[in-house]
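REVIEWER CHECKLIST
Item 1: Sequence provided? yes
Item 2: Single chain? yes
Item 3: Sequence as submitted:
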Amino acid sequence: MTRIPFLSPFRVRGFAFQWPADLLTNCGIEMEILMLGWFILTETKSVLLLTVFAALRYLGTLIAPLFGMAGDMYGHRRLLCAMRASYAIAAAAMTVLTFAGQLGPVPIFIAATFAGLVRPSDLAMRNALIAAIMPAEQLMSAMGAAGTTSDCSRILGPLAGAAVIAALGMGPAYAIITVCYTVAVVLTALGGQGLAHRRVAGIGEASFIREVAEGMRYVWQMPCLHAGMWIAMLVNATVIPLTGGLMPYIARDVYHLERFGLGCLLACFSVGALCGSIGVGMLGGRLLAARTFILAVLVWSTMVLIYIFMPGPVSAGVVLVLAGIAQNFCQVPLFAMLLRVAGERFRGRVMGVRMMVIYGLPVGLLAAGWLIEHVGFRPMAVGYCLLCFLATLGIAFWWRDALWPAGAIGNARGR
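Item 4: Structure as written out by the authors:
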């Protein structure tokens, strides 16, 4: 097993339990997104309300550094268990409302607000946990393998959600989601048995605000981290809305598809992302992280630009596969670079800052909803893709000494 870089992380007990826990969590989230997004669009018939619903899921990006610091203080696994337990409780409440016939836009927006405060930090916590338990030489492979949980869930979740709703209705579908979250909590806890949390020296001796400020100052002072955060905010504000929150609108109004067609489009993008994660995992430490994610952003924005001009859903699905591959050749090396450069003391807080810049996503979604109603879908999408491509070139040129040379800290293979 160890001869295959992609599989070697599974020899670490914590990772072997965390991988299925992450998969179940992501499957539950993806099922909810499809079910509730389609419900909002069909009930309200408003693309603006759809973008509001999608944007609410990222409210917690502004407080993500606090979660990162709390993870450094109390243990990333403990915090992750508590977060996922809250998902299960919220899903159980939605299950009761659905069976009682009380599900409507108001409770959905309330649930989205609650989820938006907590879930954006889930990815940061799981990545910080991986960095804490994996040897340095296996970090890139582990990040690639961990990325497959999101990719597989984006294939399975939308298709399973659409199929279960069609066969059984939303009540049983939400009951399945509750079970997924509950089992994920158990597996996350089991992965930490026998492992004591080692408190990072100095954490908790100052106030939360001061600790978070130190993390942000550290990012500001490290050119490769600074550039990485700007690129992360850029892609979240531009290309990600076109393959995420706006997909229900694109499926229904551009390609005239039903809920299962939406699931297929989402699955196409996720098949590509899965291939990208496997590719990164197989290449492992041979990739130069900073170079890789810069080139991948350029390819990603180009593929999304091509996708919006495809004449039908089949050709659009093919291009979405290519866009998905580029996405994970961007995101996985970016995460690996941030974790390596941050070191043990700042790992949780740097990942918290990384999640905070996801706030570009709700801003991009809300702006997209307004622009679609005023200038149309394709002009908005073209502007988003061109902005991403050109701004990435500008960032790469401005911080070229920290991002491009093979010997630059952003391309270092050690931690």
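Item 5: Key structural point noted by reviewer: The first helix runs from residue 13 to 44.
Item 6: Recommendation: ____
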